[in-house]
């Protein structure tokens, strides 16, 4: 079955919270209030469906965000313009089935129209080589390390240049074509940031590896 990546819906927040807090030590825990804050403010908050069931989620925001993560601040102190992946979680039964690659392909498709690079981090505590290998295979490279004092965890700080951004900017400026897969969204929870419309983003993506 294909993987469908689309904007999260409000009634799914409890399921998203359960997924996050069952993900293990590679993902910081959330409470309902924090997740609600993401729902109301995050520029990119999408879920993946497979076989009609929730398979994971990804939350991201641009460098203009007021996000209070110390990892986000680390990037913003060093880079003026980027799209930041705060967290990606894939349900344990769906890992290795292409959901992560579908998410990253969708996030890159969104970000490369608006930002010159993508940023994320991978925790270095324990055995996290699969996550580092995954990000390396997707074009990310380490640009430094950061000790997260709030979690007592060291993170590898990763960046990926988005080569299409300069061409899109030079060709279209701020007037992107009004086509479904890049149209910007409506609604108060954008708070001025771009976000693709839910109805238009319910498209299947390739499963990858």
UniProtKB/TrEMBL annotation:
Transmembrane segments: none annotated. Residues 187-209 are annotated as: Disordered. InterPro entries: Acyl_CoA_acyltransferase, GNAT_dom. Pfam families: Acetyltransf_1. Residues 3-164 form the N-acetyltransferase domain. Gene3D superfamilies: 3.40.630.30. This is GNAT family N-acetyltransferase.
